[in-house]
Design brief:
By secondary structure, the protein is mostly helical. The chain folds into 2 domains: about 110 residues, no CATH class; about 120 residues, no CATH class. It is built from 11 helices and no strands. Helix 4 packs antiparallel against helix 5 and helix 9 runs antiparallel to helix 10. The chain is globular and about 65 Å long. The protein starts with a helix and ends with a helix.
């Protein structure tokens, strides 16, 4: 029952933050002075009302009130000190969700469930194995691939230049997806992912008729997928 309350609060947040945050309200939040504060207050009030309606506990005002105050403060801090970037957006969402989870945990959660989970050595071992695995497919794998293909880097790599850091993030995402597919037993999805990347990436390179660059990109792609697959299979063996 308590977990349903958490889902209701998270649903209210999604509705208020993405479906009821109208363009005029979003623009008003970035205005200076009373105009910006009024827009922030209206937006926070929408969150509080949604939380109140979704909870349907008509005599309880504490959670809507806390959500109103914290959402108002968090959004003011975001607008004043952070730019409109992906990192700022993720931090903002993480802060709001942390408040919601904290409220739920303090008022509704069954703490004995967490204690049982933490006291189970199998579950804790699995968590840390998964944590290490996902960390390995990010920066460590990226560095290993860079060192591996360094000797084949084309002298004139102008055609390899794209958006700053785009290649790095593409690699991160693809390896996380591959690792997730392997762990969950959806190995066939890895083939679809590799095929999709090949169509988009190697199609343009084929038009350029640069064999060395094509081989260089292919080598990096296969190395990236191979590392994620090996880590994924190792994790499956360890957690079984």
């Amino acid at each position: 029952m308590s977990f349903i309350i958490l889902l209701k609060l998270l649903s209210a947040h999604v509705i208020a933050d993405f479906f009821l945050q109208f363009d005029w309200l979003c623009q008003g939040k970035h205005e200076k002075g009373i105009v910006g504060l009024r827009a922030q207050a209206i937006h926070a009030l929408i969150h509080a009302v949604c939380a109140y309606l979704f909870l349907a506990e008509w005599n309880s005002w504490l959670i809507p009130l806390v959500i109103f105050i914290t959402h108002f403060i968090i959004d003011i801090v975001k607008v004043k000190w952070f730019s409109s970037s992906t990192i700022a957006f993720l931090i903002d969402q993480a802060a709001h969700i942390a408040v919601i989870v904290g409220l739920w945990w303090a008022m509704y959660a069954d703490h004995s469930m967490l204690q049982a989970w933490l006291s189970n050595p199998i579950l804790t071992h699995r968590f840390w194995i998964l944590f290490i695995g996902y960390m390995l497919v990010l920066k460590p794998a990226s560095l290993l691939i860079s060192m591996f293909i360094k000797g084949w880097t084309p002298v004139n790599n102008a055609q390899l230049q794209g958006m700053p850091n785009a290649g790095k993030w593409i690699g991160y995402i693809e390896r996380v997806l591959v690792l997730t597919f392997v762990i969950t037993g959806n190995i066939e999805a890895v083939g679809f992912l590799l095929a999709a990347k090949s169509i988009f990436r190697f199609g343009d390179l084929n038009k350029a008729r640069e064999i060395k660059i094509t081989e260089y990109v292919l080598l990096g792609t296969l190395a990236s997928f191979s590392i994620a697959l090996l880590i994924g299979f190792a994790i499956k063996m360890l957690i079984q």
